[in-house]
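Ticket reopened. Same input as before:
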Amino acid sequence: MSNNRSVPLLPRLASFWLAAFVDSPALRDAMLGDLAEVAAAEGRRAAVREMATSTPALLLARLTASGDLALSLLLALLVASPVALADAAAGFCLSAVPFKATAVRPLWFAFAAAAVPALVASIVARTRSGAPVWWPLSVALASAVVAPAAWPATHQLAVMATLIVFSSVHRPRRIASL
Amino acid sequence: MPRGDSLGEFEQLVLLALLRLGDDAYGLGVQRELKARAGRVASIGAIYTTLDRLEAKGLVRSETGESTAERGGRAKRIFHVTAAGRSALSDSMAAVRSMAAGLRGLGPA
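Engineering reply: fixed in the latest deploy. New output:
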């Protein structure tokens, strides 16, 4: 019982989190109990970490159950590959950059500011995994050049999907564990 | 077992953990057993997702267990392997053994 004081805070956060993914009240209750047990034994931080690492599996199960196979596949590829995750983050931020004229200004600055570290993270992840480094750079360039003025959300999704599918070919792992 | 219903490696491990834990087989217990015996680190979400899928296939069944103060008064969900689950596990492991047989360092000669 290393962290009893923090335990009362956890159920509210965990309940909110689980409500998004699990329909069965019995299963939710069981998982909340397990998280409380983790918090009591190892502390609140361990329980929160458990929630974070559980999210991809629960989200994937939720999407699969909903029958949205395209989205499920994209998420599975994202989860399977750190490279894909870094690419998607970079792609998402970079694809927002061309919309300076139409976007809400603070939002645009936030995306533009996040694009550089996201791109660096993508390149580092690709270098570590042996995947081609030129891909995120070329897509970023293409994104900036050919981006349509309208439909920014559609464009961003298209860029993300392209990045995810292409980059995930390199490391399709961990899906079996989900 | 019908074709297409074969068990994945993670499902095999979860079923084996349930059998090992017996009457105290619940999500967190399975997680600890997998880590201790197989060195496999899996999230509670991944384990419950798998248990839910196995239950939907009829390979495990669940019941409400005891609640403790340590769990904030919430009951455990205890899982048991069904006869169909044992059969599926046995078939699946036999298939792996058969494939490994004769391969140096992997199975019986």
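The longest helix of chain B spans residues 83-100. Strands of chain B lie at 60-67, 75-81. Please confirm and we'll close it.
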